[in-house]
Design brief:
Strand order of the largest sheet: 1-2
Shape: globular
Distance between the termini: 10 Å
Number of domains: 1
CATH architecture: Alpha/alpha barrel
Structural class: mainly alpha
CATH class: Mainly Alpha
Radius of gyration: 19 Å
Low-confidence stretches: none
Number of strands: 2
Strand content: under 5%
Largest sheet: 2 strands, antiparallel
């Protein structure tokens, strides 16, 4: 038995692999059983997932007159950029025509001046930019020049290298600083940026991207992730959302996504994750399942979960992190 399974109070694998939830089954096959993307089981699960909610509902929404307007991340959580993020988080097929269409629509809005994603120069923040960048990379656009420029912009917006030629907006500052966090460094932004950079193969990361990753890891581990007392702006205190494990994600992050980001960039066995790992383990129920305490069920095109319900999505996330951290 793999070590991570020994800390669970029950075996969640049969539940996660059930065919009635094909999107979860698809990702569980890949993340927990190491099935290759072209295996028969993975292909069948992915095909079924594309025909089922929540993925099917997001794809179908492209027929709504309001879906593509305005070219802006708002309204939350049904606009193009959020929808792209949720499709990525749900494991949508990159080859699907509507996924490709959505990627191209967003890339068509990239300003030519500096490569940042989205309209204008002021709204971009590390969190939303990182979310969109991660989806575009995962959906096969990493070699697209517009995405390459967006990767470079996000990295330089973190490290400050070449900032005179890479101007920042009023909401985005160096070292994960954010106007929405009173100009302080934002851990949510750092998490989203790292999750995007992690999708770039190490051998293909530019030096500035690697330095941005290193800076992100240093920042996220400068506090105990189990406490999450990162700089807070107007609130002046730790956001309770850190401790409400949820799915899917917009700009908010929780303690588990902090671990996902650190694991993704190679810090899975860092001893400083110990308290956060213990926190995640403590949140399981008697069956080795986790609850979704932030589900956005009335905000997305179709619900992933109901808030406070036992969740395959959160359980999959927890198991993926525990497997990486514990072996």
């Amino acid at each position: 038995m793999e070590a991570w399974l020994t800390v669970l109070r029950g075996d969640p694998l049969p539940w996660l692999l059930a065919k009635e939830t094909p999107a979860v089954r698809h990702l569980a096959l890949r993340r927990l059983l190491d099935e290759p993307p072209d295996s028969t089981a993975v292909r069948r699960a992915r095909t079924a997932a594309m025909r089922s909610d929540p993925i099917a509902a997001i794809l179908a929404a492209q027929d709504e007159e309001s879906f593509f307007e305005p070219r802006h991340p708002w309204p939350k959580y049904r606009g193009p950029m959020y929808s792209l993020t949720f499709l990525y988080q749900a494991g949508a097929d990159p080859a699907h025509p509507r996924v490709i269409r959505l990627c191209e629509y967003i890339l068509d809005g990239v300003p030519a001046r500096d490569g940042r994603l989205g309209p204008g120069v002021d709204w971009q923040v590390h969190c939303l930019h990182g979310n969109t960048l991660a989806a575009l990379i995962a959906f096969g656009f990493a070699s697209d020049e517009r995405v390459r420029r967006a990767i470079e912009w996000q990295a330089r917006a973190i490290t400050g290298e070449g900032v005179l030629s890479w101007p920042l907006g009023r909401t985005t500052g160096l070292g994960f600083a954010c106007g929405y966090n009173s100009g302080l460094s934002c851990a949510w932004g750092a998490i989203k940026a790292l999750l995007a950079f992690a999708l770039i193969a190490p051998a293909e990361r530019s030096p500035v991207v690697q330095r941005a990753i290193d800076q992100g890891v240093e920042f996220l581990l400068s506090r105990d992730p189990a406490v999450a007392d990162y700089p807070a702006g107007r609130q002046g205190k730790i956001s309770p959302l850190w401790f409400r494990l949820g799915f899917p994600f917009g700009y908010v992050a929780d303690l588990l996504q902090n671990l996902e980001a650190l694991v993704a960039v190679g810090s899975a066995r860092d001893a400083r994750l110990g308290n956060a790992i213990d926190f995640i383990v403590s949140r399981q129920d008697a069956q080795g399942h986790w609850r979704n305490d932030n589900a956005y069920e009335r905000r997305t095109w179709a619900p992933f979960d109901n808030t406070h319900s036992t969740s395959k999505w959160v359980t999959l996330r927890a198991c993926t992190v525990l497997r990486a951290a514990l072996g």
